[in-house]
Structure formats: C-alpha cells, structure tokens
Task: structure prediction
Amino acid sequence: MTRRIYIFDTTLRDGEQSPGVSLNTGEKLQIARQLARLGVDVIEAGFPVASPGDFEAVRAIAREVRGVTVAGLARTSFHDIDRAWEALREAEQPRIHTFIATSDIHLQHKLRMSREQVIEAAAAAVRRAKGYVSDVEFSAEDASRSEPDFLCRVLETAIAAGATVINIPDTVGYAVPGEFARFIGEIRQRVAGMEKVVLSVHCHDDLGLAVANSLAAVAAGAGQVEGAINGIGERAGNVSLEEVVMALYTRRDQFDCTTGVHTEEIYRTSRLVSNLTGMPVQPNKAVVGKNAFAHEAGIHQDGVLKERTTYEIMNPKMVGISQSSLVLGKHSGRHAFRDRLAELGYDLSGDELNKAFGRFKNLADKKKDITDADLEAIVEDELRPV
Ligand code: KIV
Ligand code: ZN
Result:
C-alpha cells in the first residue's frame, strides 16, 4: 500500500544556522506562510531559547500559521522545554522537539555525561514536554555515529516516556546509503514500541549524500524526512527537501510513497528562501537551479522540441516553472510583471508593486530583455532601500 511520508521543514531553524544567514521575524513569517502553502507537514520555526528574536519568531508563526504542525527545538534542559512551550502555546498543532547527543564522541567531549545520565535526561525531557503537548519529537543527535545497543536503549526510553516521533539525525553527514538503510532497518526491528511512533531521518550533506541517505532510509521504512529548502543549513547544509520530494514523486515506481507537498509551489518557495536569506541557488542545482530545465546542446534542443520527455524526467510546470518562460521587455504590462515576480517568490503590495513597475519600465527603456536577476535587483532595492 502507498505510504504517506511526512515532510518536516527546518529551513527556519537548522537552515537559518547557515553561516551568514539571519532572518528577522517578518522574513520568517513570510517563509512560514509559503511553507504552509507548499504543504509541508511540519514547520520547525526555530529554537526559542536561543535568543529573544528566535522566541518571538516562533511565537509569531505559532500564532498565525494554520493547517500545519509548528515545532520548536529544545535541548533536554527544562528551561529550554518551558521556553519552547511558551513560544508554541498558541499554535494550532504544537510540537516540542527535544534532543540530546548519543555518540561517545559527543558524550565525552561535549556533554561530559555518562550514558546513564543521557538516558535519564532524555526520559525527563520527553516527560516534561509531554506535560505541555501531546506531540513530542525526540532526536538522538549524532545517531549515525552512536553505538547501536546504547542508541536503541535511549530510543526505547524516549518512546516509553511518551515520544510520538523518533528522529535519527546523521548530524555530520557521515552515513552512506546502504549502511544507513541497514541502520534504520535495525532500529525499526530492535526498538520496542517503534511501531507506535513515526520514525524520522535528518540528514546533513557533508559528503553530498544527504538525498541518497534520506531516500535509502525511506526505502527502509522511515516515515518522516527532515530537511531545508535549497538544502541550506550548517556547513554543507541539510538535505534539500525539494529534491527528496521530487525524487519520491518521479520514482514513485520504486518508493510507492506520497507526500502532501503541492509541488507547483516549489520554485516560488526556493526563490523566496534564496532572496530572503541572501544564499544564491547554484545554476546547476537539481529541481530549482536556473539550468535545471535548460537545454543547450542542439541535439537536446531538437529532442525536447519534438518530445519533452526525451531529455526531461520532470515537467517544469510541476515544480512551478512556467514552461514558456516569457521574456519581459518594455512592452510588457503590469500583469505579466506581477506574475513573473510571484514566480520568483515576491508578493508585493499595491504601492510596492507600483514603484517596482515604474523602475522596471525605466530599465526596459535602456535594456532590451529584462532578466530574472534584473527583476530581483529592482524588487530588493524597492523593499530594502538604504
Ligand atoms: O543535525 C542534528 O543532529 C540536528 C538535531 C538538533 C536534530 O539538527
Ligand atoms: Zn541538523
């Protein structure tokens, strides 16, 4: 039977941990609204104890964004968990996500805790969170480098304490697909109570294997995938959610899984995240890169003109890229201008739109074809005047 895979978006938490990225509450709200439109199941809105700004952003998203679970991250300390709850209390579907590391490297050098102390901390944290919300996620940080017997004991303890989601992070992107699939299979088999909870994976991309590892885990029975739009995040980033979603869809013959994602919103979400974080998307990036559906070689162009599927395994329309890619110039009207901006992830109000349109017309008088980069520069300038 076709399985439903839950998509957990951490663009606003782990994604925002990308070096140099800092979003304010208004920007986080814009992204959260778009993530809800995209149809992700969970938005991890931030780490409320980390800073007053993070707390405010989580609270604003919890208050406003509906139809989606809103999660807040907390270490196992009661102070973290209490702050997470304060930030989340107005959410329609709140989730507290608590975590502690389980690898010996982290226990010895970072936490300076014994294995028994980690087990006690995990149980106490899940119980504390459970006093506030019914939906509690527990993550074993650095799970993929943890000793399996100990990891299984920690996970069993978290489930017995009331966790509803168990997350297996490949925190440092160390796993390789075959091994990670076996690891997930072993956890499913060995951990008592696993059949009652959702088993999740959270892969980082240090070896460029995050998508492969996430898909291998899904094939081995994982029911939730965590990641970020455009794959942003610590170091080499988190798994790129749009790539996972499109791989599950395009190769549904292999996975027999669905997600709740409205794929036509993918491109717009990618542009919005790139614009607001200031992190460009590499041109050859799968699914959302500028060249992802561009055909340069004559043989390829000829093939695609005769029959699109000769060189395209996905229809660009499916990810929200208009096939004809209208060129904007001095004869273009306000409607085409606004539509193109919407595709690029901008939702401008009347006054902003008028000003941006005026600047577009001035530029179009001097330059024949207006590119997406020109449009982005115009809008960025209009929205963020110096
Ligand atoms: O990478 C990681 O281990 C994390 C956890 C906090 C889930 O981001
Ligand atoms: Zn992470």
